[in-house]
Amino acid sequence: MIRLVLAEDQAMVLGAFARLLSLEDDLEVVATAVDGPAALAAVRSHDPDVLVTDVEMPGATGLEVAAALQGGRTRLVIVTTFARSGYLRRAMDAGVAGYVLKDAPIDRLVDTIRRVHAGERVVDPALAVAAWDAADPMTDRERDVLRLAADGLPNSDIAATLFLAEGTVRNYLSTAITKLGVRNRIEAARVARDRGWL
């Protein structure tokens, strides 16, 4: 029996996944979670074989959850609507073993879970090629600053949140804008989000 924890912030999608996966003779859903912290708690409490998680969730993204669980026994499968190469590349760097799009048939998710449990890595080939070709040019700190700027925070608040000098925040934003080849922080945030780098 493959024991699963499911993490998804949309209740209807979470319920549908839980029901469909429970129909399989070799899959058992032992817990569900609606946000990143709950997903981490469920994994630590239930020690599942596989965590199936969305990327975008409140509290902590699926990628942050993956990074927090990296090196542990539980294998991770990302199920998302986002076919963005940046997300896939970051997921692979965080030790995610499977990446499935939500518009794929449920049979593909079931197959991915079984293969990941058996020790394989499973990724849509077209996405894998795109991720290899589209490297994220930003550093983690530039990404942190740009993420807060995208939320509308002024430089002074970003500096306070990240314990940086305001001039350092300006430098990180300027570098990110230059690397992305855009005119301002709003365009930089949009391009970075579209490519899955935020």
Q: What is the number of domains?
A: 2
Per CATH, the class of the largest domain reads Alpha Beta
Report the CATH superfamily of the largest domain.
Response regulator
What is the CATH-assigned architecture of the largest domain?
3-Layer(aba) Sandwich
Major beta sheet, strand line-up? 2-1-3-4-5-6
Characterization of the model:
The chain has 198 residues and is of the alpha/beta class. It folds into two domains: 131 residues, Response regulator (Rossmann fold), CATH 3.40.50; 55 residues, Winged helix-like DNA-binding domain superfamily/Winged helix DNA-binding domain (Arc Repressor Mutant, subunit A, Orthogonal Bundle), CATH 1.10.10. 53% of the residues lie in helices and 15% in strands. The protein contains ten helices and six strands. It has a six-stranded parallel beta sheet with strand order 2-1-3-4-5-6, sandwiched between helices. α7 packs across α8 and α7 packs across α10. The longest helix has 15 residues. The model has no long low-confidence stretch (mean pLDDT 88). Keywords: DNA-binding, Phosphoprotein. This is Response regulator transcription factor. One of its GO terms (molecular function) is DNA binding.
